[in-house]
Here is the input.
Amino acid sequence: MFGFVSSTAGVAAAVWTLRRGHSHGACWSHGRAQLGAMTLVPWARRQRARLEVDAAEAGLSATQGAARRWVMSDAQAPAAHSAVGGSVKVGAPDAAQDNGSKRMRVRRILEADEAILGTHVKVNGWVRTVRDQKQFAFINVNDGSNVTGIQIVVPSEKLQGYAELMKQLSTGCSVAVLGTVVESPGKGQKYEIRADDVILLGGADASFPLQKKRHGLEFLRTIAHLRPRTNSIGAAMRVRSAMAQAIHAFFAQRDFVYLHTPILTSSDCEGAGEMFRVTSLLPEGVKGSELPLKDDKSGEVEFKKDFFGKSSFLTVSGQLGGEVYASALTDIYTFGPTFRAENSNTTRHLAEFWMIEPEMAFVDLSDVMENAEAMIKYVLQHLRSECGSDLEFFDQYVQKGLLEKLDLCLREPFGRISYTDAIEELNKAVKEKNIKFEFGAPVWGSDLQTEHERYLAEKLFQKPVFVYDYPSEIKAFYMKFNDHDDGRTVSATDLLVPGIGELIGGSAREHRLEVLKAKMKDFGLDEAAYWWYLDLRRYGTVKHGGYGLGFERFVQFCTGMENIRDVIPFPRYPGQCEF
Here is the structure.
């Protein structure tokens, strides 16, 4: 369909000209922009680097890859592209592959410099809107690479089969577009594509639920298989992806080892007992009365006859396994799914979510907090440089002031306050500032409620803040007793952020064998079940610590999305496990 230059000589010349009078020449005009003879120059450094990546994927040399730009000549034009214009192909998916080109993502086109003007490109995507104005049709095509998509201008007189296309084209259709990048005279978008070919790959039934109007996020959760095509969910998933990549990059730069900890476990890291049990004792058709029992009197199930020979669960945390490998590799991190069988229907809880859990040897609580703050800021900096348009979308339509909030986190050091001082400040807020909390003023020894956490982050500090040295009674068994107050508190911290509350929970781990055994006894934990965890203290124990970051809450913080169910592809919560 289109020829493309791939010779070294072609690149050396680095100049291609489309002359007036070619069947796809620069003389085309639709009353919105008039183009003369166009000289195409090499890409700027950023675009060239991207093309070199494409070339490597295609098995071409870097020089050949940089030259892979479509050039049209009269001799190369097939019969379908006569002087009267291009063609429209309906229901011919294979035709989209006949041009010998690689598709180009919309984001790359819109972020390119002006050297891209006049370039012939292929774009695949889904139709968001169609406007037929007789002489021209304007189609917005989105391929998921950005919020806006790109406008396709289709001249009715230039393309054969135009009327048939307009009958079949609708919101939700998938298309392939071949055309030329031109300057857009409209506001809000630098470029648009003047179509030479529009190929309908897949039609959309009239029942397609995502028409051109705003849809509530609650409704979108009922169609989780289609909601990625909306602006808000698409942007949230792009931000989520960029954050995950940045997290891996942060730890890789600091020589952390990425560890895959088990999904199936017999250990309860948190000691809360809110775990999903995994069993093979209930295959299809087995009745409860047929389960193996320990004895007739107790009625308890005999899990020794289960697949693993013991009770097994979906993991609530990879921390304990992480401690094992930190005791040999020094610095590790996990990034994987975790599960909690909590019957919580809040905007902050999920039954299945992802956790980032670093574990570091030879550190104290101060080191843990420093690492957590550095990681948060690294990710925010990456988002500001790589996800600018998505963050602007969230700032405009989801949470006003989001960008300023994120920038403040980058500029300012995080606050730090002890639990004891935090309790004092919260009580002072009630007595002196007449602040009303639903759960009242907290007393020392009680856990902070979300409203207390948000007051500290949003009102008192107006930025993220670490609260540290919590009472030992309200924290997990593995957290290290503080020596300075005879074990009244533990060396633990929570990072509280505006709009969310708790984002990170971390601590120095109890590395002293006898102290840990005593704590396990106080928590009612069976030493025999944790024999391997105790071994870490028997053989070369060291001070160590780490933290857990709820990834979805972090995505919430960075996007301003109110409900955690809208920042994970397929949310799992009480009563919902579809898709």
Q: What stands out?
A: Residues 1-49, 51-86, 91-100 have pLDDT under 50 and may be disordered.
